[in-house]
UniProtKB/TrEMBL annotation:
Residues 199-318 form the Ketopantoate reductase C-terminal domain. GO terms for cellular component: cytoplasm. InterPro entries: 6-PGluconate_DH-like_C_sf, 6PGD_dom2, KPA_reductase, KPR-Related, KPR_N, NAD(P)-bd_dom_sf. This is 2-dehydropantoate 2-reductase. It comes from Paraburkholderia hospita.
Amino acid sequence: MLKVCIFGGGAIGGYLAAHLARAGQCELSVVARGKTLDAIRTNGLRVTTASDEFSVSIHATSDTRELGPQDYVFLTLKAHQVDNALEQIAPLIGPNTTILPPTTGIPYYFFHALPGRFNGTQLPALDRDGSQWRAVPPAQVLGCVYWIGAHASAPGVIVQDGAKAGCPIGELDGSDSERVRVLSELLCASGIAAKVNENIRSAIWVKFVNSLCFNPVALLTQATLGEMAEAGGALPLIKSMMSEADTVAAQLGLRIGPTPDKRIAMTLSAPHHKMSMLQDLEAGRALELEPLIRSIGAVRDLAGVATPTLDMVLAMANLRAVTATNAIQTQEQHA
């Protein structure tokens, strides 16, 4: 039986883990910590989707050494958390382990196996000293995009936002490998739509740009997706930001499929959803803005393309993030 580890028990990790555990077709474990670890050990995971609600028991631990090398490892962390977790991730990775790192920003492996002049390009701004490249070899990576709107209403309790959820996966070179087909079948059998995408790099870009454009606007406005749709100027601003980003993609030789209008419409299909950065703001958690800023900066400079609208919105969002962090620190000092 395949050994699968979900490294991170938050909304996305918990959603994946619960579905895989319910299907019972793999030996599953979850790496978590703190209140989330305690909750999973005591009560398992509880998930509410648009049409279902279920609870499952899952083996959870904070010590990866007891798990050993896995067949598949999902790193369902925030992008800014990966560097500090590399030592803990290491025991899970053997020579035949397939890893699915987070793709909120541009992932460190983005230019691995990319046809053309940027093939193999490493981005120091995104991967400090090449530590991720060495610890999680790109040849062992599958691309994965989480189109799963969800939030943790409490530790170990996951609520899906919107009716649809899926995570396309694919080889970076577009090949039809056994490992990608096996994982696709495993996820689909668990109730998670996971089609094999022969252009997964484009899908990663689309998701990155979605986060890059919607998250800062949500941070500044504190609006749900539905409230953004009802506002007069929010969607034209987001479309302008997306268009700038896609100009960068064209210079890098990427084939981007759906237009900004189609991508915006798809995102708005969950009108009550709050973007993850707004969820983090309201919960007093660290904001995952810096990886987005560094990501667009790195590829923009590589492509030699200006992004004035993105730059302005991100600058304002970054100021909002700074003031939020300062407020949290002040509260902690007076607690």
